[in-house]
User: Fold these one by one.
Assistant:
Number 1:
Amino acid sequence: MTPDKKTIFSGVQPSGNLTLGNYLGALRNFCRLQDEYNCYYCVVDMHTLTVRQNPEELRERSYALLALYLACGLDPDKNVLFLQSHVHSHAELSWVLGCYTYMGELSRMTQFKDKSQRHADNINAGLFTYPVLMAADILLYKSDLVPIGADQKQHLELARNIAERFNAVYGDTFVVPEPFIPGNGARIMSLQEPDKKMSKSDTNVNNFVLITDPRDVIIKKFKKAVTDSGAEIRYDENEKPGISNLINIYASVKDVTRQDVEKEFEGGRYGDFKKAVGESVADTLAPIQERYAEFISDKTYLESILRRNAEKASEKAESTVREVYEKVGFILK
Ligand code: TYM
């Protein structure tokens, strides 16, 4: 860790195969920021238990997510790539912070409301206190910046409030983190239902594109993407949510503005546009898929990264927990 660099923390849940939304909203920025910051990128396995998981699958998906971090271009020597459950401080700080978080705040979280509707038979306490664990993740490393998609903004605001509240009682302890939310990639929507976000836990496979989807599947999914009855390739989230989502995806993948996309396809047909979007996404993901296949086949290498980085992360996290324990009045051992 370089002392004059600021710190980043972010995480992804190994709760399913990662989508294009995860890539454009988060992972791609993890890579872009890795030289400028000291980065902690976590596989947040503890968060996944809020929804029932198959243990064997969870383990496999945790390795897969680490392999994907590497395949996307994260350098394991530059970044601390680790598993949340390997660092016990996350659970410890989460308990303390939970005592500085109000029930009212947690019940206003839209993700809690959404997930408790979708999993009405399992509205567990973990689902409710999930944002406290997320605050602990971030605050443990005194993170300055948190790259996330737009759906996590509300959780980050809560983490900021908790940090400020704690600091107000005990003096400067936590850094109050800033979100880093990309422009066009911040909210990639479902291809079939563009009024909801693209999600790895969706049951309809045509709603999402996976980072690991083969080229022909990607192109087919974009071909099937819903558009609207008009004929113009124009950005308008309310009137043309399907086309607007495709414009966003293309702009994000090509690193151009929405206006550039409108200009490029002015007078063009939906079918040709959808083909171009599909091909550009497939081209972007192809090299990642190749590297992924290599990394996932080398478990020994993945395990060595996890072991090494768990130690690095623990060092920082444990020192924060000691500081917090001392401030709240525990006797240090
Ligand atoms: P998760 O695992 O749902 O998603 C990982 C990251 O991908 C972003 N994302 C999207 N971005 C754009 N469009 C989409 N359709 C889309 N879907 C997902 C998410 O915003 C996220 O950045 N609670 C977090 C994980 C977490 C975390 C943290 C993140 C736990 N602790 C601390 C940052 C800092 C989550 O469930 O992300």
Number 2:
Amino acid sequence: MQGDPDQELSGAPFREVGEARLGPGARVYEHGWQSWTPTGVYPATATSPRPPSARSRTMHYRAQTEFPERGFQAAGLLALDPGEGGPVQIWSAPDPSREVPNIRAIDEGERLRVSADGDVEQTSHGGDLRSALGAWAEELARRAGLGKPRSLSPGWCTWYQYFTDVREEDVLENLEALDRLRLDAAVVQIDDGYQAGIGDWLDRSSRFPHPLSELVDRIRASGRRAGIWTAPLLVGARSRLSAEHADWLVGDADAGHNWGQPLSVLDVTHPDAAAHLQHVFRTLAGWGFDFFKIDFIYAGALAGRRHGDAGGIAAYREAVRLIREAIGPRATLLGCGAPILPSVGLFDAMRVSPDVAPYYQPSDGDLGAPSQLSAALTGRARAFQHGRFWVNDPDCLIVRPHVERREEWAEHVERFGGLRMSSDRLDSLDSWGLETTRRLLQPSPPDPFDLR
Ligand code: 9PG
């Protein structure tokens, strides 16, 4: 795949970090960079999914990164089950809060050759792949000093029914339906569509005629908590923020293209931009929101020219720290489109997959793009992170009648969620959809899943 040459990493060279004998049935586990990056287990002789376009590489895989033609390229975590009863081998980043090397593996007949563009440690584990990944995650959580993640309440989200067309009255209709149908959703989360622009998080679109604080009051008056979506590290070319503060953008960092506009990155190492970011979240918290879904935050970790001398991952972690400081320790913070391993210790919940959709297969074959298949494959492959790093968000439950293979999706959410959020227009559910929603809207399981 051809990339924009300005976007290439200065490119540390790949050095060999290990090799292993391949037995019959040997399998490789490849962990993707961010929430939406395909993650899975494949025959060791296979080639993993590749971004079909430059945009997909930036927005669904890992920007500024070359992918080899054949074999595997993991971000910070690759495992091998050698297939002949030998121990599972894991190659991983020693401290992914500082650096997440790309780890390549390629089969050379009898052997798997492993190389990386940064420091990697190798560990060996008895048992199967799942138990090895669980043990690996526990060790990373221990090193990061994490306690047990707190259990989260179930909720309802606007996105997978209304998308960017959501209106204030849609939120109110479903708020009323939650009461009438006696559904146990403790959080009502407004997603993309309420805002005036990508970067202008405190300005409303015309579909929200009243101040958001009034909508929050209505939600809270029903005994629920109010949640809000933002993409706080993105700045759209058409936003007011971009017009007024061009000096707050990371130089030479292309975060992709969406909402009909190119996307830049907020430079949180600029003190005024950092103050602005905190002002946005203090204001939202002041309006009464206490559940924050922060999305497209892979953008914060891109390489580029910054005001301060922080690299991508350090700048990213600083951005999340600033947001957490602004919303306070008790608010719920959900990451999405987030670089997974650099986020350990920073979030209550994490989207561990691409988006679900009402259709089963991704339209263009991109397993990083929305589809039930994309969400199920990657969500399952990251199940071991739940209860260790955070609460896994498998993406929302959608079970209205037109949702393709809705029974399978409900089963996935039941097995691998984690955070339980419904995202249908509640009055469009048939009796199976309503009963399934009622049954699945439960607090997140406090412990890791039993994956046997
Ligand atoms: C709002 C949505 C929802 C959803 C998020 C995220 O263009 N893209 O590549 C692209 C990828 C993911 C995506 C939207 C666009 O979904 O995961 O839950 O909040 O944003 O826009």
